[in-house]
Amino acid sequence: MVRVAREGLTLRMSQILVTGGTGKTGRRVVQQLTAAGVPVRVGSRSGTPPFDWTAPNTWDAALDGVASVFVVPHETEPTTRPFIRRCLETGVRRVVLLSGRGVDVPGYADLESPMAHVHVDGEAAVRASGLEWTIVRPTWFAQNFTEGFFRDAVLAGEIRLPAGKGAVPYVDAEDIAAVAVAALTEDTHHGQTYELSGPHALTFDEVTAEISRATGRTVRYVPLSEEEFIAELVTEGWSPAEASDYAAVISPIRHDLETPISDGVHRALGRPPLDFTTFTRTAWAT
Predict the structure, then answer these.
(1) How far apart are CA 276 and CA 272, in angstroms?
(2) Closest C-alpha among 124, 119, 117, 98 to residue 19
(3) Which of 38, 84, 221, 238 has the least CB density, counted as fewest CB within 10 Å?
(4) What is the SS3 assignment for 249?
(5) What is the pTM of this model?
(6) For residue 273, what is the DSSP state?
(7) Where are the domains of the chain?
(8) Contact 181, 29 (CB under 8 A)
(9) DSSP string of 76-131, one letter each residue
(10) What is the CA radius of gyration of the chain?
(11) What are the tens digits of pLDDT across the range 60-83?
């Protein structure tokens, strides 16, 4: 293992597995590790070797020779715990887990939902594993407006949600990846839980105004009640259960549970987080 000093810390030049390596966060982690010259293995069904959360028989080959792992959990299946156990058995020493905001906030989410259970159980498994661990808990991604939840609505010119006047300090996925890379390659993040947000909380009216300025097109926010929102989704072909689940995901915004600014980016990286205005101008300029 080669060690390269960087600002008084240690960069571990060993194989790192990034699960979800082609996804929104994972691919950025891969890009940043590659740019730093760190050997990285892309964990995906199309990877070499392939990695599939639903096929445990693919895990050992993906973990072969790996010292550190970035874990992007399966969205609905509680596979993190057995995977962490396999990491320990195959010689992995360090794990960085992508979790979610609100895991330990009463009333934030239905802890009986599959997604919440994945995060709660995954965090518990990582903390009890005996591995060097770091947990990363981001709020809503800024990229949700360019490549995620809200992109189609932005392109249509209207974001219709039951979010009320709630505000969110959207975090740039590049910052999430940078924190993950630091935790994977530096020796000062063990036992840390980093809550990640941007520097300012914005309402959807403010977000759509920013996007409108950046794109030169009018994008507006239309607040709906939960009932109206669910009914619209069902009309579009969603099942009532799926529509209700989506409404529940939006609910913390409406109840101001997403508003707080977190200091995780500064704690991990020693710099302020990227702001939404800069993100929007850059993202929509291309």
Answers:
(1) 12
(2) 98
(3) 238
(4) helix
(5) 0.92
(6) P
(7) 2-139+172-196+261-276
(8) yes
(9) SS--HHHHHHHHHHHT--EEEEE--TTTTSTTSS-TTSHHHHHHHHHHHHHHTSSS
(10) 19
(11) 999 999 999 999 999 888 899 999
CATH class of the structural domain 2-139+172-196+261-276? alpha beta
Summarize pLDDT for 226-239 with one digit per residue, the tens. 999 999 999 999 99
Residue type for position 117: H
Peptide bond into 82 cis (omega under 30): no
Question: Which pLDDT tens digit goes with each residue over 108-163?
Answer: 766 566 677 788 899 999 999 999 999 999 999 999 999 978 999 999 999 999 99
Helix (H/G/I), strand (E/B), else coil: 216: coil
Tokens of 240: 């009532």
CA–CA gap between residue 231 and residue 235 (Å, rounded): 6
DSSP conformation class of 189: -
Give Cβ neighbours of residue 227 (< 8 Å, ≥ 6 apart).
Answer: none
Phi and psi at residue 273, in whole multiples of 5°? -70, 160
Neighbour count for residue 2 (Cβ, 10 Å)? 8
* 8 to 3, 5, 186, 187, 267: CA distances (angstroms): 12, 6, 10, 10, 16
- CA atoms 119, 125, 128, 130: torsion sign: negative
Q: What is the C-alpha end-to-end distance of the chain, expressed in Å?
A: 40
